[in-house]
């Protein structure tokens, strides 16, 4: 019987630099403080899951660089007894991201070096050796080799996901937020072989061609249902979940759900790096345990909120019992009507 979660994709190092206000082009700003942490979808999701449940079996499928940064992330994973590193391969340079965190408006901007992630392909996946119930691959649009075209399946990733499902593994994907127009070509093929699609409102909008924010940046609630329905129609077999700072929205093919985010004082927010992955970890954990979509969204919302309480991507994420209490007892934002 399968159990646990396998996380595959990008492993990188986040070099977090805090500034008080982002400069205009050709202008200078002072770096107030610097901090290094493990980053990328694999690090963020795996460590969040390990914090949620230290007994949950977690398998990592990734490339780690043959350099100091690679040793840093490998040692970081090794601190967790429930993380299986047997499928990790050392090769090339470790990807890294300079994360510029604006202390004033609490936003972050990313400058990424892809390193060995460009070579991460289907050969990295020993599907017959995976014991996990769910395989989560991220991020679509950032895994160059898997985003390549495939004549039969559309993309190499779609082919991989199909083969994983044939092995009895449930599949999940997340997408990176990029300012290019590749979404409608690269994303739909993967959705055909996806059980759980967990994305933010920008990624959902770009993937479906449906505007989900007004020019004033407010959510277009009336379009959320259409985006959920469209992604489900594209082939997602179980759950489509769209998360935004204000709320999250889910659809399981029968029922639509809308849950407001937890209301956190801005003074308590130390960083927003990895909040989306912390949300995904909450969904994946709950799905692995057989919870309903509604209950899973509650756990995911609390997981994302708790991640904001620390500067890095995962150390703020709480255990499952704390997360359940957080959503039930913390103040929430106003509900967003979207039906």
From TrEMBL:
Domain of life per record: Bacteria
GO molecular function, one term: kinase activity
Gene Ontology CC: cytosol
InterPro entries noted in UniProt: PfkB_dom (IPR011611), Ribokinase-like (IPR029056)
Keywords: Kinase, Transferase
Record keyword Nucleus present: no
Domain Carbohydrate kinase PfkB: 5-315
Pfam families in the record: PfkB (PF00294)
Name of protein: Carbohydrate kinase family protein
Gene source species: Gracilibacillus salitolerans
Taxonomy of the source species: Bacteria, Bacillati, Bacillota, Bacilli, Bacillales
């Amino acid at each position: 019987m399968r159990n646990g979660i396998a996380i595959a994709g990008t492993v990188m190092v986040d070099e977090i630099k805090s500034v008080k206000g982002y400069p205009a082009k050709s202008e200078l700003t002072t770096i107030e403080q610097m901090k290094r942490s493990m980053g990328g979808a694999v690090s963020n999701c795996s460590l969040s899951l390990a914090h949620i449940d230290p007994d949950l079996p977690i398998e990592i499928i990734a490339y780690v660089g043959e350099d100091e940064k690679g040793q840093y992330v490998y040692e970081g994973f090794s601190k967790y007894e429930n993380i299986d590193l047997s499928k990790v391969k050392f090769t090339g340079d470790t990807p890294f991201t300079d994360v510029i965190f604006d202390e004033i408006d609490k936003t972050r901007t990313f400058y990424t070096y892809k390193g060995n992630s460009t070579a991460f392909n289907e050969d990295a996946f020993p599907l017959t050796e995976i014991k996990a119930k769910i395989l989560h691959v991220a991020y679509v649009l950032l895994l160059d080799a898997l985003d390549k075209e495939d004549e039969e399946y559309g993309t190499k990733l779609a082919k991989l996901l199909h083969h994983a499902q044939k092995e009895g593994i449930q599949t999940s994907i997340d997408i990176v937020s990029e300012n290019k127009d590749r979404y409608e070509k690269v994303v739909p093929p993967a959705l055909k072989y996806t059980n759980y699609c967990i994305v933010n409102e920008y990624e959902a909008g770009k993937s479906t061609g449906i505007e989900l924010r007004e020019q004033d940046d407010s959510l277009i609630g009336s379009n959320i249902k259409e985006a959920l329905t469209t992604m489900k129609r594209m082939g997602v077999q179980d759950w489509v979940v769209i998360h935004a700072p204000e709320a999250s929205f889910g659809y399981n093919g029968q029922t639509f759900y809308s849950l407001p985010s937890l209301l956190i004082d801005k003074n308590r927010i130390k960083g927003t790096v990895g909040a989306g992955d912390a949300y995904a970890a909450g969904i994946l954990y709950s799905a692995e345990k057989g919870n309903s979509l509604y209950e899973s969204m509650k756990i995911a919302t609390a997981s994302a909120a708790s991640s904001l309480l620390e500067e890095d991507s995962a150390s703020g994420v709480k255990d499952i019992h704390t997360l359940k209490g957080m959503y039930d007892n913390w103040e929430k934002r106003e509900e967003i009507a979207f039906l």
